[in-house]
Amino acid sequence: MQLTKEQERMLAGDYGEVVERNFRLLVRLGEIYGADRMIPVGSVQVAGVSYKSIGDPGLEFLEDLAGKGARVKVPTTLNPPGMDLVDWKELGFPEDFAEKQLQIMNAFKRMGIMMTATCTPYLVGNLPSFGEHIAWSESSAVSFANSVIGARTNREGGPSALAAALCGVTPNYGLHLDKNRKPGFLVKVNAKLRSNSDFGALGYHVGKIVKDKVPYFKGVKDADVDQLKALGAAMAASGAVALYHVEGLTPEASMMDTNGLETIEIGEKELREAYGKLNTGKDPDIIILGCPHASLKEIATLAHKLGGKRLRKPLWICTSRVTKEAATRMGFTELIERAGGKVVADTCTVVSPIERMGFKTTGVDSGKAANYLPGFCKQAVVFNNIDELLKKVLA
Ligand code: F3S
To answer: Which of 209, 210, 228, 345 sits 20 to 30 Å CA-CA off 71?
Structure first.
C-alpha cells in the first residue's frame, strides 16, 4: 500500500503510541482487502457503545485509550448506549449497569467523540454529502449513508471505525470503489408496501437471500426516508447488506446496469412469509418503536395516534436526545406520556437490558429489531405495523 510521508511517520510512532497502534490496524486491514492507499474521511460513526455488548473488557479498553490521550481527528458521532442517559432510573434500568455505562460514555467524551448517542447520525447533524468518503460502523447507518445519501463507507466494526476517527483516514477498498457499488441481484417487488413494517419484512426477506451483495429494487413506487431506513436496517440485520439501490428513488440507481442479474420476485406471499418468520410471540408485555431511532415525523405520527387514548401496557419510542428535545417542544412527548407511553432517548430496544427488566415478549414494527430481539434480549416478538400493535395495548 502506498503511504504518504506523514503516514510513514504515523506508523513509525512519531505521533505517539495511540496513533501508531490504530494506524497499524488500518494498514493491516487495507493489506487484507488489497487497498492501494489511505483516503481521508469526512466523518466517523462509532458503534460498540452499550455496556451490554462490550462489557468490562470494552470499558477497560476505552478507558486505557482515553487515558493515553487518544483524540479524534475528524467529526465523530456515537451509537446508542444501553440506557437513557437522563431518565434511566425512572425507566427502571439497573443501577450497576448504569454505573458502567456512564463510565463508557465518559471515556468516549474524553476522546472528543460527540455524544449524539444515536444510530441515525444523519438526522442529528452528521450528514455526509454525495460521494463523500466516511468510516461508519452501525450497519443500519452504513446502509442509509451508502444507499440513500450516496456517501461511501464500508461496514466498519467498532475498533476500525474508532481507528479511522483517531487517524482521520480509512483504507481505500470495498464500497469506496465504483466497481463494488454495482448491483448483484435484481429484486422485483410486486407486493404493495403500506407501512414501515412492510419495508422491514421486505428487507428481512431480501437480506436472507442476497447476504452481503448489493440488491437493486424495481417496483417500489414510493418510499419516504423512514421507510428507506427501515428497509436498509432489516437487510443489514438478516444479511450483511451495506448498499442497495431503488429505481427512481436512490441517487446512484440510474447509473447502474441491471442486465443479466439474478432476479428475485417478491409478492404478497413472500411478504406474509417474512411476517410469519419474525413473529414468535402473541401477547406483548411492552411495545418498543424507533428502530432505527425514530425521526421527528415518526414521533409526531405516534403522538397523533395516541392523542386522548390510554395504554394498558408500557410503550416506548426510542430516539436521539436531539429529536426528543424537538418532540417535547412540539408537545408530542406530552401527548405520548399522557397516554402512558414514553419517549426514550439515547438507547434502543436491542442494546438495552430489557430482559433484566421483566419483559418477555416485545412488540415491534422494525424488521431489524424483530430479527435481533430473540437472540440479544431473549424476547418473543410480535412484529406488525403500528396500528395493529396499538390494538394489542390500548385500553
Ligand atoms: Fe438503532 Fe438499536 Fe435498531 S442501534 S438500528 S435502534 S437495534
So the answer is: 345
